[in-house]
Amino acid sequence: MAEAADFQGTSASPARRWLRRTGALLAGAPLLAGLLQLPAAASAAAASGDPVSVALDSMSPNAPTDGDTLTVSGTVTNNGKQAVTGAHVGLRVGPILNTRSGINDVAQHPDELQGIPGSEVGDKYAQKFAKLAPGVAEHFSISVPVDKLDLGANGVYEFGVALSGQTSAQPWQQVLGVQRTFLPWQPSDADTRTRTTVLWPLLSTVHMTAKTGAGELQTPVFLNDDLAKELAPGGRLDQMVSLGKDLDVTWVIDPDLLASVDAMASGNYRLQGEGDTTVAGPKEHQALAKQWLASLQKAVVGKEVVALPFADPDLASLAHRGTSVTGSLSHLKDATDVAATTVKTVLHVTPSTDYAWPVNGAVDPSIMRVATSAGADRVIARSDSLQETAGLSYTPSAARPVGGGTTAVVADAKLSTAFEGDLTKAADSTLAVQEFLAQSLEINAQTDQQRSIVVAPQRLPTAAQAQAMAAAVRALQGGTWSQAQDLTAAAKAKPDPSATTHIPSTSVYPTYLRRQELPASAFELIARTQDKLDDFQVILSDQSRVVTPFGRAINRGMSTSWRGQSDDGDAFRNGVEGWLDDLAGQVRLIDKSETKLSGRSATIPVTVQNNLVQPVGHLVLRLTSTQPTRLKIGGKAYYEQPVDIAGGHAQSVKFTTSANANGRATVIAQLYTEDGQEYGAPVTFDVKVTEVTPTVMLVIGGGVLLLVLAGFRMYTQRKRAAARQAGEGGAGAAGEDSDGPGNPEAPGDRLPEESDSAAGADDPEQPSDPAPDTAPESTDPSGTGERVDR
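That's the DUF6049 family protein sequence above. Prediction below.
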């Protein structure tokens, strides 16, 4: 304050002091600039990208203990335009991190040059490079005894690998690149170990269509051959099984995947081709499927297996967009019912079906209601959805009673999402593993209270992600602060009374997840397809041949695998409906042209064709006259007859008709199911009635009268002839001029009329109606197996 007052007072002495200080400051400026140049350069490099990138490809062991030697390897790459000279890679141990948020902060900026952790371990444990040329990557590998790292208390340490060197533009030693990660340090068994449940998801996308072959085996048709790629050595599903078999995990399986692989293993599967064509699947893929199933059967022995509803239906989409469509929830129940049977049939183990798993563990009240509607009383949620509100200083156990006898099993969000990135590079995989282990150790260090923690990773890990997950789980299960536990034990564990049980409202459901949901139109199409299936199955003698594949296809239409793929999902669901329409159309009425009736009564045949391989029945064929005053069917406006047809055959059903007047009458043939539902399209045709006219009837009546008169005349003539013969016979007996009793009558004695009449009596030719176009025939229906040539 005195200096300020002197400066403001303009006296000579304070002014001289101010000038001296200003001169000293200006003289020291170059030195200050030199001193500040290193951090300033480092800051600029951080802002514009590190001059040298450091990739940490491996750390072994991931969580060292006393007596271990830590080996770190990777690559350094000069990203600049100038060579780096006098360079070396050194190891740095930073401060212990006491909170999970502290771990998060480091993980968000792994290559930031500011705040480089600690000091180098020592020149003895560094790798030197005389020169790093621009754009050139150099490999390094450093091994150091753990006791040289000067680790203190148990916990998570920030750990860095840094490259130092100089360039011609900045000719002094400086850190040009760094990679931060974590070093979990728990050399002896923890007093209390966290019980950790790791879910091992075995799911895939939809592969099978609703189509099957016509033979007894019902050869399945696949959308494509992508499943074989996943099963092949090194493929995603191959890695999941080969890695998971040695881990103490809970297998979470979609039964649809098992059904698809089993169908492929059975052989003769086909692939959807162009249009309606199919091609045979490669024979070698059958062997792949068999081998994979055999490996999986061994891998799950003695492990807990959780079966999701068939085809992993999208619970959130169903809750938000499907419940308004009648029957949608019934499909979830069907998918749950078939799940256990499928897993038991294929894997020979009895799974648990008590769990529902919404996408990313995101829940709201409507999702909880839908999730439990099919019988599941445990819902796998995630902590970023069911967030803590009590300000706990530790991570509580997973089990949370949320009311109504339902338990939310809340997976830890940070552990569950640790492996979601692109882990094809070894450096990215190493960082993910180390962060996972650091978070797990920090959870254990939070409190002495033993807790149950659940890890629920992404549904469809890539092969690289699966490898990183397996590495982390192996290190965790071989470590000193965690012990494995299955999901059922975690769900039954004593809940923390301070942990939240409040289900978030629907309004806070993540927007990015809502955008991916199946549209309401998807559930409307599914409902329409189900209605058609219900109508179709009632006529079948073997309903399972249709109900089973189409029921499973409907389940696949609700799968979470269609999230974010609306066009592909619509194409699949439309394909299911289209194929069902094609099958139902194989039982149909044959089109009929105009029919002519030229008599008072005749029969009209209507042909029903069955091109299915199985017999159909429970059908009624109704023939209806639209003008019953002119033409009646069976004596009334319409008539019905039952229909039963063998597979691959047709049946001609005959109806008796009667005409009351001439003219054209329209007739409608329609198939119905026995419960009165229309089946298929009607066939409409005209019947032209050409019944005899009154004039013709008068002529015919006159002809009949002439015949009667002619008959009467013949009768009277015969009677006269007989009387004459009787008179002549009497005279012959009395006189000798008789011809004698044995002489025949002389030819000239027969009257011409009598002779003609006698001849006509033997073979009369009477007028008759012209033959009708539809000839009278038996009104009984033809036999079931009758083939009709059209």
